[in-house]
Write a structure and sequence with these properties.
The complex is a heterodimer.
Chain A: H1 4-18, H2 26-40, H3 58-75, H4 84-92, H5 105-116
Chain B: H1 2-28, H2 31-47, H3 58-77, H4 83-96, H5 99-105, H6 108-117, H7 121-132, H8 137-144, H9 148-169
Helix pairs in contact in B: 1-2, 1-3, 2-3, 3-8, 6-9, 7-9, 8-9
The chains are: A mainly alpha, B mainly alpha.
Chain lengths: ~120, ~180
């Protein structure tokens, strides 16, 4: 096996021989130049509004965000105190289910019950 | 400022274009791909010029871009070869053509290049930078962003692998 330096020189010489006809062509170089030239050209057409750069001061953005949070809190009553009496009142609100013929269930039930007792109710359903 | 950037990159193209092209060609083993990558190296360097602070030499910096682009292209083209597959490929070549005919047909340089192409990419890069580009280990470490110890280890393993492959090809003899 060749020694280190000999091996290195031998390998390099052969690879250089193998790649001696490999060049970065003028055509390829011109493509690079063209690409650079295109990148540095100023943009003549004005961008549409959705492509325009928007820059807002940080304070404005923070203020708007805080305002939005506050409005949401007010709307959802997040920070409003609800007393136990109010809770009880809300819970006591009747919940009416309307069945067929728009007759509330309670009324229907009352009618059926009344029809079963002789001296009660208007008449049979 | 824009004009000076353009001139700088154009200057680099003149100084390093061929060298980078040849090194990339050895890595990817495809002329047109090598040319495409080399073009992209300089275009990318133009766009990233503000990132070049002059700490490394321009050549080192350009080379780093070239290595990264070569890796990306090879990943996309699935040309990366893994160790276990290499022996089988070698045998299949022998079935098609006798060794004597193969030797007659190929030059030593081409045969060496074939051996290098059989190396896994992680060793191939180091071998090419060290043997072909004659770079110091510290420069290679800078380009590949690895420690010198890692580079030394890869170089040693890569060389061992390369010598074994070359021995099978009849390029090198056993040490007496």
């Amino acid at each position: 096996m060749k020694k280190n330096e000999d091996f290195k020189d031998w390998l390099r010489e052969n690879l250089q021989e193998e790649t001696k006809e490999i060049y970065f062509s003028e055509e390829a170089r011109n493509k690079v130049r063209e690409s650079m030239h295109m990148s540095s050209k100023p943009v003549t057409a004005s961008p549409r509004w959705w492509n325009k750069r928007v820059s807002l001061p940080r304070a404005v953005v923070s203020f708007c965000l805080a305002g939005l949070l506050l409005l949401t809190a007010v709307y959802t009553r997040t920070f409003f105190y609800v007393s136990p009496q109010e809770i009880a009142r809300l819970e006591a609100q009747p919940i009416i289910f309307l069945h067929n013929g728009n007759i509330p269930f309670g009324a229907l039930q009352h009618q059926v019950t009344a029809s079963l007792e002789k001296d009660k109710g208007v008449g049979k359903p | 400022m824009e004009d000076r950037s353009w001139e700088k990159v154009d200057d680099w193209m003149r100084l390093y274009g061929d060298r980078i092209m040849r090194a990339v060609y050895l890595i990817v083993d495809d002329y047109h791909l090598a040319e495409e990558i080399t073009q992209e190296v300089f275009v990318k360097s133009y766009h990233s010029l503000q990132n070049f602070r002059g700490e490394a030499s321009p050549y080192t910096w350009l080379y780093r871009i070239a290595i990264n682009l070569s890796r990306d292209y090879l990943k996309r083209k699935s040309k990366v070869k893994f160790l276990p597959l290499l022996a089988e490929e070698q045998h299949s070549d022998n079935l098609a053509e006798s060794l004597e005919d193969k030797i007659a047909r190929l030059t030593t340089g081409k045969r060496i290049r074939d051996c290098i192409n059989k190396l896994p990419l992680i060793y191939r890069e180091v071998i090419i930078l060290y043997y072909f580009e004659d770079m110091k280990l510290s420069n290679i470490a800078q380009i590949l962003k690895q420690s010198e110890g890692t580079i030394k280890s890869k170089l040693s393993r890569g060389r061992e692998f390369l010598e074994n492959t070359m021995r099978k090809e009849g390029l090198v003899n056993e040490e007496e």
